[in-house]
Every structure is written in C-alpha cells, then in structure tokens.
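ARCHIVE CARD
Drawer: 12
Card no.: 0347
Subject: one protein chain, sequence and derived structure
Cross-reference: see card 0346
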Amino acid sequence: MLNLGYMLGAGIYSVPGAILNSVGSIGLLFAFWLLAPLFALGGLMVYSEYASMFPKRSGAEVVYLEQAYPRPRFLVPVMFAVSSVLLSFTATNSFVFAQYALAIFDVPITPTKQTIIAVAVSAVGMAFVALSTKWSLRAVNFLTGLKVLSLVFLVFTGALVLAGFTHIRDPFANFRSPFSGSTTNPNSLATALVKTNFAFSGWHNAFNVIGEVHTRDPVRTARKAGLLSLFSITCLFFFVNVAYVAAVPKDEISNSGQLIAALFFQRVFGEGFAAKTLPIMVALSCFGNIIAVTVGQARVLREVARQGLLPYARFFASTKPFGTPLAPVCLKYLLTVFVIVALPARDAFNFVVDLISYPNLVFHAATAIGLWLLRRRRRLAGLASSTYRARNIYVSLYLLSAIFLLIMPWVPPEPGHGDVSFWHATYCVVGLVILALCAFYYWLWIVVLPWIGGYTIVEEVEQLEGGALTARLTRKYHPSVADIDNGERQPLIAST
C-alpha cells in the first residue's frame, strides 16, 4: 500500500496527452507505458542489492549514496536534504485539481482561475496535515480507495467501448497504423519518458522505511512489494490508456493537456451528469494525493531538520502545538504557492514535472555507478556478495535511462512538439542551479561556518526502537588552549 498510495497520483489522468503530443503515434504511446516500468524494474533491482547491504537503515537513496560516496564527508546527505527541501512543493496535483474542478462546472480555464484554485486547494490539503495526522491518514486511506475505484471504473468503461456497447462508432480507429506519425527526435522521446516516469514514481517507497519493516527478511518484503505494485500498476495504466485511445480521437488526445480523463467521459457519456463522474473522482484523487505527499514530505523535512542539516533545527523538528510537523508543512506550502504563482499557468504543470525529475536523475545515475563501486570495495575487503545481487543488465538499464534523460532534453524539439512555450531546456538549467545551490549550502554549512565558529561537524548514529539506525550531524567545538593545558601554555618547541 505504501507504493500504491504514492504511484496512484495525478499522472495517469494528466500526462497521456503530453506523451502523445511528444511521440506522435499511438504505438509509441503504448510503448512508453511499457518502457518506463522496465527502467523502474532496473532501479528496483539496484535498490534491493543496496538494501541487502544496509537492511537496518531507512532512507533508501540518500543512505545508499552516502555509503557509495563517503568523500567528501556529508556531501551526499547535505545535498540530498537541501534538494528535497527546495523541491518539496506539491504543485502538480494542485494544477490538475484546479483544471478538473473548472471542467466539472463548465467554467473556462483561465490562468487567474487556475492559480487561485490551485493555491486554495493546496491550503486546504496542507491544513489537514497541519491540524491532525490521524484525520489526514484517514482521508488518505479513503481517497486512495477512491483512486483505485476510479481507475477500475475507467478500464471497465473502456472495455465497454471496445465491445461496442457505447455510441462510439469505431473504437478501433486509432489502433490502425499505430506507428503513423512517430517521431525520432531525442528531445520528444526524453520528454515522453519523463512524463511516464512521473506517473510511475513511488515504486521504491517501501525501501524508504525498510528499517521499520519487522519481518524475517525485510529486503525480500520490500522487494516483493515493489514487484507486485509495479506489475499491477503497469497493467492498470496500460489498459487505462487503451480506454483513452478507444474513445477519443488521436488529435484530441494530443491537444487535451491535463484533461484527458474528462475528455474521455465526455466522448462516452455526452454532456450529462455521468460525464462529470470521473472528473469529480479525479479531482478528489488529486486532493488526496496532496494530503498523502504532504504527510510524507513533511516527515522528511522534519527528519532533515532533526539530523542537523537545516538551520533552526528545533523549530522545524517541533510538533507543537497540534502534535504535527507544523513548521515543515508551512515551509512546503510557501514553496508550493511560490511555484504556482511564479510560473505561467499554461506551462506550469509540464515545467514542474520536468523540473522535479532533473536533479533526481543525477542522484539516480550516481546510485547506479555507486553500486559497482561498493561491490568492488566489498570484494577487496573479503566480504561476500549480496544475496540480492542485481544483474548488470538491470544496473545498466537504470544508469542509461538516467543518462539519456540528462542529455537529450538539451536537443531542440520538433516545431509544435515542445513541452513548454519558452526555451525547451529551461528546466535543465534550473535543475542544475538547484544542485549548485545545494553544493554552495554544503560549503557554507559544513566548511565555512565551522571554520569561523571553531567547531567540527561530526556524525552520531542512533539506534531507534525496533533496531533501525539513523544518523545525526552535530557540532563538536574545538577545545581552547586553556582547556588543553589547564592554564599552562607549553612552548611549541621544547628546549634541549
């Protein structure tokens, strides 16, 4: 459920139109919905081997990178933590909620209306988390069930369309000549893969809490959960896309933006109340995902502060006055509002999806390479190979997908197939700037300030209840000369 709750977000309702607009053909649309989980499978195998080496450490990628790259000290946890803070906004679900809410009431979608609704729904969703963790989790459980129900309902409706039980005259029209119009432009292919990866994000969620998994073999449990969720979501997402293609003409899918699900029900049920059913469920699913992501990310931000990686650690780690991480939620809301207001409404969703992915791709590539480095170190140290050793083909798949998505977005797209209305590689530049800011923060927080303040940053490992381990950075002040010699200054060079 940890994986499913994360993966069943706004992606499947919002990105198929952008993917088809990028790749140009129905055949490639389907191919990318099968290709993305294949790369995710490679990542799952990589994570499984890492987890078998450090089964008591929760945190997944940040822990694995820290072990693979121990020098410079604390660089990985600090950069990972700061990038998590800077990218902790929940704007994508807010954008999709706003568009579907306006579509439900047949209100024209304008930049102002979309922005106002997106800011408002973010405030309401995060208020749930700020006021009560218990009721937030109850809302998430209910709305996660609604997500599953809406997707099953959509797949069932698609089957009825294909069987000829609706007024769609030729449900197989889009399936003829499926690869007609396919593109070979690297930018377009990379954009499509970014969008499908966004829909599948969350396959690794169980590894984030593996230190809290109390089974005989926690790695096997997390690995099995990842495989089952990835397989089930792949099947579900693929047949949802079959339903879209059966009911909606190709050109309308390409131009649907984030409203493909609303367009699907309009084509099947007309303009009546039935056509509003799925958009209402989609809007509620997005609202549930805002709460779910806020619950998880607020916990991450609080943990980052508790580990000493942020200034004002006590403030951000506090759970007063409601027993919730109020300060991290407020920080997350401010970042979300900034993103919603700062970006052009028509490009906001695509840009945010692309931007969130880019810095993470650097970490993904480093994770794949780091596995080979750790294997070599363990072999030289005489340690046995991992029980869950990933085949090199899986490691290579994970690495190559990250490299492809880091390089190809710099190539200009074909006319009319750009992801945004401004320069196509803007999100790449912003992503690199974010990483540069993380590096600057590391230099300031770990090098400069300790030198000025006369202390050293040291790591303390704590064992939590249940055996899980966590690390915390603390200050160790240098003893003064008076402290060392009890007030008696010794000569630097002894006389003979």
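Annotation on reverse: The chain has 20 helices and two strands. The first strand starts at residue 455 and ends at 463.
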